[in-house]
Queue: 3 jobs
Job 1
Amino acid sequence: MCTSLKYVNGDCYFGRNLDLEYSFGEKVVITPRGYKFELRKEKMLNTKYAMIGMATVAGKYPLYAEAVNEKGLYIAGLNFPGNAVYNDETDGKLNITPFEFIPWLLGNFATVDEAEESIKNINLININFAENMTLAPLHWMISDRERCIVVEQRKDGLNIFENEYNVLTNNPPFEYHRWNMNNYINLTNTTPENRFSQKLDLSTYSRGMGSIGLPGDVSSASRFVRAVYNLSNSESTKSERSSVSQVFHVLDSVAMIRGAALTPEGKSDMTRYSCCINADKGIYYYKTYENCRITAIDMNSENIDGDSLTVFELERDLQIKYSNSKESI
Ligand SMILES: C[C@H](CCC(=O)NCCS(=O)(=O)O)[C@H]1CC[C@H]2[C@@H]3[C@H](O)C[C@@H]4C[C@H](O)CC[C@]4(C)[C@H]3C[C@H](O)[C@]12C
């Protein structure tokens, strides 16, 4: 399972948990401006904008799970099994494969408004990257500072939803999550008053009683509500450190702990990595399941006009800083 979110607090930040029972060979990858992507059905993409995100690299091709470009446009793919539909090639449409979707949008467009014009004409086609890589059934959160949209290509066609919650998880389709939020209208981060019955003497005995009823499980529907609750009530100063820390705290509140949810095959679905991207500065912060120390990669410290990908292996070993010893492990 996965959760993606946007937090605007001075700068604009995007966060994402990638929950999966296996590693997909993920690395932080910077694609420079002017990088050439051969597209399966459309003419060559020559990227106008550089991008940074988490990807596996196949040959010279970065297969991104999520990324942001130098203009602050973000896109994340999240699992949408049973609902994502990819079509055959159609005349008169822009025929893009799901793995081309992120480079296409981030390579060409600076804002959601610009990207949306192109998305309306896109037909996501059923061509996989390689024989041993089946198509990933995805829906997408696409966002900049101003807008956040969700794109779902389903059997009823390609849908674009305005996402005022700034959160996306997995199934069911987005209309469900949006409607389901109404069930939580009564939750509050303030101290609740007795509205149960004036005939009864009920009072609070603990902090946080306004959030009783907030779902605590890791299902997609529940993670959606919990992330929206924590995000929309979020408070942090506008400093970089405070915002980054806050985004990781919200992501932690919906993270999957190894062993807590098993796939039908008995494997642990777990949060492989969490990231927080400062979209204004082009900085990609992440931590992994094993290593909860935050690592940062600044896109603008690299040559984003070069002609090759810049790839960073993940810092996966747990790093501990001792306060009373010179040794750090
Ligand atoms: C599994 C990832 C999504 C995580 C998620 O949403 N999990 C939820 C599980 S569940 O529904 O709730 O059960 C998706 C997001 C992007 C996907 C990757 C990207 O689409 C890029 C390529 C595409 C190739 O076809 C397959 C490998 C791949 C490298 C994909 C592997 C995997 O399917 C990724 C990493």
Job 2
Amino acid sequence: MQTETMPHSSLLPLVAEPRNPGMDLDMQWVRAVQANTSAIERRASSLPGRRSLKKDHQAAWLLRAVTCIDLTTLAGDDTVGRVQRLCAKARQPVRADLLDALGMQGLTTGAVCVYHDMIAPAVQALAGTGIPVAAVSTGFPAGLSPFHLRIAEIGESVAAGAQEIDIVISRRQVLSGNWQALYDEMKTFREACGDAHVKAILATGELGTLRNVGRASLVCMMAGADFIKTSTGKESVNATLPVSLVMIRAIRDYYQRTGYRVGYKPAGGISKAKDALVYLSLMKDELGDRWLQPDLFRFGASSLLGDIERQLEHHVTGAYSAGYRHAIG
Ligand SMILES: O=C[C@H](O)COP(=O)(O)O
């Protein structure tokens, strides 16, 4: 978690258009949030074909992906029973016979992610496992409830046992270029979370441009976000590779300039094992192995685990390579 002192707020004006484009620091920061759309889209389109994760270690990478899933249910008809079943899956995400065949044990998902009302049953079902409960908050998914209620919601979710809080930012602050207001909002959310980790959901599908995505990423990191997250899963466009590239590079720039490691959570519409491998490959290429751990990388996904388990089954019954252990580390 970042410190409470928010040492980087003085950099906030640099997110706006540079008044003095000749200044070196201005240019560096502004470059970090400018998105060269065609270059990003070219690079993103080549990602699925890349081979930075070795194919014969694919089972290991899929197991790694499992440890990075925020196993999610965010439906209006969620019940205690459904959440209990989800938690049972988080505790044992892959069938025991498959894990045995792969020589693995003790595998769990990164977290379980639910609405506020489902925190208590999730905490109970996960007791003693060390698997944290993440709660979506602040009027998720639109984030348009009265501000004091959004703050109160965070407090209630932390009191109910959520160790991670996924807040939604006010998209209008981005769309109107009101970076100070976005910073203040994020900082207030950060403070309300106390010791809980805070993930800032940008709802990138509603931010208009990649440049806005880059700037909003930077502002949220400056204001103390532990993770930046693409989407609620409820927008019409959710996690995409171009958006991910922009956000990941903002994380890299922020780390290089401040020494703070901020995590990344693509969310919404990620349901195929091969997509998970592309995201892991992107993280490895752009940020390195440190960002392949669950404290710095999560998938927000409700149905990804099922496909991963199916692919692992194929792997065990088919072309399983004993070399996978080297990759799991
Ligand atoms: O944050 C998680 C997302 O809401 C999950 O989206 P999904 O149901 O498309 O996997």
Job 3
Amino acid sequence: MTDAAAPPVVAVRGLTKSFDGRKVVDDVALTVAEGEIAGFLGPNGSGKTTCIRMICGLLTPDAGEGEVLGLDVRRDQRQIRRQVGYMTQRFSFYEDLTIEENLVFVAGLYGLPRQAVADTLADLGLTSRKRQLAASLSGGWKQRLALAACIMHKPRLLLLDEPTAGVDPKARRQFWDEIHARAAEGMTVLVSTHYMDEAERCHRINYIAYGRLVASGTTQEVIDNAGLVTLLVEAERPGVLATHLRKAPGVEQVEPFGTALHVTGTDRAALMAALAAENVEGRPAETSLEDVFIRLMDQSKDNMR
Ligand SMILES: Nc1ncnc2c1ncn2[C@@H]1O[C@H](COP(=O)(O)OP(=O)(O)OP(=O)(O)O)[C@@H](O)[C@H]1O
């Protein structure tokens, strides 16, 4: 990350948006420092895309305020749009154009010189494929083209909405290496994802459930703040044991990992009692980010009732 004293690139608060009378984003505050990779996580339909669109100036918030790149999130939407890069969830380029033709088209929209296309092709390792039709590209290369198109104008803020959905692990890794390289040069990134390993690659994460931001911090802070205890239990018949443990008081989650179970709750004594009642022993294990997210989601659901 770059200069910690620099003003945040995103500093919004109270962001709220309703569609058809239903509040889908409710009082969300978000701060993203310069050069930071901020993760945006949460169940389907929890409002991540809607937040991203308000931040990049595509949607006007019903309420809330703040700055994006020093510009007013309500008043300066046009300028914000020109200065950010936004990669949408769906591949949205011309399949019957080549990689190069797609980039030439985008360069035209931004008024960029032809050299910008050549530089971007080279930067992203696309030069040797520049004459390939977009339709014939694999998921990983399509997503690389999409990234090229949204960073060609050198935005200081990049918003990525589930950029690696359906992409194989190697291409995902290469994509993240690319993102980290950009962040090291000072680009700020806000990225939504459903993948736990990607959440762990972010400098900070923000978890949103049912429109409300319910946790923020580094991965470790979010795990520590959840106050969960996890015990690992080896079992001969993990399926049967899991069924029993799920009914025991104090046991919140039971997840099989091969022949072992991860048993999670907030009360260590209650977990130990539940295991003792089944004549099994547990040893301390690390609580995973996924365990924490599932708890946050369940808690948010309960609060909605
Ligand atoms: N333009 C719109 N008109 C009406 N409803 C909308 C509109 N955009 C989003 N919604 C609704 O708002 C809710 C939040 O959607 P949003 O796409 O922001 O969630 P998300 O967290 O990005 O979900 P996912 O992880 O599935 O992409 C959903 O119920 C969605 O159907």
